Amino acid sequence: MSALRIEQVTTKKVIPKTEDLVFGKHYTDHMFVMDYQEGKGWYDPRIVPYESITLDPAAMVFHYGQTVFEGLKAYRTEDNQIKLFRPDENFKRLNRSSERLSMPQINEKDVLNYLKELIKIDQDWVPAEDGYSLYIRPFVIATEPNLSLAPSRSYRLMIILSPVGSYYKEGIHPVGIHVEEAFTRAVKGGTGTAKTAGNYSAAYKAQEKATKEGYSQVLWLDGIEKKYIEEVGSMNVFFKINGEVVTPELNGSILEGITRMSIIELLKTWGVPLSERRISLDELFRAYEQGLVEEAFGTGTAAVISPIGELNWNGKKMIINNKETGEVAKQLYETLTGIQTGKVADPFHWTVNVR
Amino acid sequence: MSALRIEQVTTKKVIPKTEDLVFGKHYTDHMFVMDYQEGKGWYDPRIVPYESITLDPAAMVFHYGQTVFEGLKAYRTEDNQIKLFRPDENFKRLNRSSERLSMPQINEKDVLNYLKELIKIDQDWVPAEDGYSLYIRPFVIATEPNLSLAPSRSYRLMIILSPVGSYYKEGIHPVGIHVEEAFTRAVKGGTGTAKTAGNYSAAYKAQEKATKEGYSQVLWLDGIEKKYIEEVGSMNVFFKINGEVVTPELNGSILEGITRMSIIELLKTWGVPLSERRISLDELFRAYEQGLVEEAFGTGTAAVISPIGELNWNGKKMIINNKETGEVAKQLYETLTGIQTGKVADPFHWTVNVR
Ligand SMILES: Cc1ncc(COP(=O)(O)O)c(C=O)c1O
Ligand SMILES: Cc1ncc(COP(=O)(O)O)c(C=O)c1O
């Protein structure tokens, strides 16, 4: 682990009141930065004041999109500890994403240690209120100024921190979902399993359609047959059908969510019947007609669990569990947020203390 | 058209000797910049010294990939004029790309005028030597600092200029191509028809495979059936089969190349049989076995025409035209580069004089 250099701010910002927090709008006083050069590796890890970065207009990130990112959260517990939830999985996934984008690997342990130092320095920014947390955004960008079509030979890793409000101001409530048939999020052989910038802006057009129709998120189908369910918004998706919980299996275009992974482990421990398999919209609608669709929910770091109350497949509508949050969704939400905030025992050792 | 502000450099750079030029490594003295703000539109068009740009680490381009770009060239004619080749088509395509990425439209005419002013100021950088030109890279990036998953409300358009060497130091020569079956460049419903950063870095892994096998480019198949030919490297692709020129039809995942478009018009004028249609690798290999594959070449702004001498489809090899440049490829190359540099008449009015 290279020596970490720390340069503290001289004047701290005023920390916004939790009720004024807007997702992704406020950043803490410091950020972590580390550079990479081919032949030299990663160098100069440093915690510096949060500030703008300077890049050549020919920096490859602007032209050919080599960039990967992660999203995780730090939670303040009732006894005033600060916990991270499975951060090792985020840094592993960052490396998998980088591999897909021909970007260099990081030392996951070192970067986790740097992150802990950063959070310690900005610890006053970790909200204490229920449902609030500190959102952590590690990302890597290609910095070489070069218009040739080849991997960049220099990169920058940064970690920025943003205190975020509760996704659910009035508790968790089911949302309506538009099934997208024209636009494709990801396809086998593409970049869907990587957290890379290009995947996200590519999804805006479908989200626009959903919003126009009065739905809050998009259900993505596979890019090949437009038949099988993949994800919802930028979340993984689960259904409870006739007593069994079903989630699409990882197929080379679905992002391997850490919430998804944790839910699967939890349900297995609880003895809830579960299968990871291909599931078509047709199958889901057939089950619905037989009255067998009991619950549906999206899962991800931001919302943890987002129950689905309604699906609209080109005019064919499905109302799930009377638009109420189901039992499994509720239990998963309570357990996961409980573990994250230290209110519930953590038999899996998923949480990591920052201090 | 908003008033253009011009700030010239005080000290000009030394223009590199043409023989020292490396693609995309040298930039001229100035660049064009214009900003966009939701509710206000595009503002402050300006030509300023080429310099680094400053962005918030939370600028959306780094996280969600809203960025589009173009690539075109300026040529110096023998009588010392400077010409652009179909620049209106590039700005139209920039707008189509922006539409796909939920980014704002530009006024194509205004931006073309700004570009002409920029080139006039840096006109000494347009090489005069045969095969050399000034590569022009317009691009737009999302600048709003915000981690929410929604289109940015601010953008920056920039145009940078780079003198580039000839693709063919010793004349045009056929290259070997690796047929990629695992990785996918683009799929229907995705972003393949847009020139957006994410498409390009997603292609590096396949290019790595090609290079390892000793081939210089990748032949991309459709993302759905992995059966139909789409593009080669970042070029469109043409085959001459039994007297007919065939190119894959635009299908929602192929980029609409301006060289492709121009070649189609030229061949039609010449009375060469031509069809834009779906063509499978199977069909191509069957034709090859019958001795009917006469030529193959990629087309794009960078190389204009890039003849293909060999195709390797998972060990199945095809040698085309004895690895020599075919007649159609040669004629298209001479005609297109002739029109671009003013040596050949331009009945289509494709070129636009900068001065
Ligand atoms: C496309 C996509 N799917 C699913 C997820 C859920 O993953 P996680 O549970 O790790 O947050 C995310 C968010 O990270 C995502 O971006
Ligand atoms: C993916 C891709 N295909 C094809 C082309 C060829 O297009 P054009 O002839 O306009 O340069 C390009 C380059 O612009 C490209 O990026």
From TrEMBL, chains A, B:
EC number of this enzyme: 2.6.1.42
UniProt pathway: Amino-acid biosynthesis; L-isoleucine biosynthesis; L-isoleucine from 2-oxobutanoate: step 4/4; Amino-acid biosynthesis; L-leucine biosynthesis; L-leucine from 3-methyl-2-oxobutanoate: step 4/4; Amino-acid biosynthesis; L-valine biosynthesis; L-valine from pyruvate: step 4/4
Listed name of the protein: Branched-chain-amino-acid aminotransferase
Family matches, as InterPro entries: Aminotrans_IV (IPR001544), Aminotrans_IV_CS (IPR018300), Aminotransferase-like (IPR036038), B_amino_transII (IPR005786), BCAT-like_C (IPR043132), BCAT-like_N (IPR043131), BCAT_family (IPR033939)
Catalytic activity entry: L-isoleucine + 2-oxoglutarate = (S)-3-methyl-2-oxopentanoate + L-glutamate; L-valine + 2-oxoglutarate = 3-methyl-2-oxobutanoate + L-glutamate; L-leucine + 2-oxoglutarate = 4-methyl-2-oxopentanoate + L-glutamate
Alphabetized GO MF terms: branched-chain-amino-acid transaminase activity
GO biological process, one term: branched-chain amino acid biosynthetic process
Family that this chain belongs to: Belongs to the class-IV pyridoxal-phosphate-dependent aminotransferase family.
Modified residues (N6-(pyridoxal phosphate)lysine): K195
Cofactor field: pyridoxal 5'-phosphate
SUPFAM superfamilies in UniProt: D-aminoacid aminotransferase-like PLP-dependent enzymes
Organism in which the protein naturally occurs: Halalkalibacter suaedae
Entry keyword set: Amino-acid biosynthesis, Aminotransferase, Branched-chain amino acid biosynthesis, Pyridoxal phosphate, Transferase
Pfam family, one: Aminotran_4
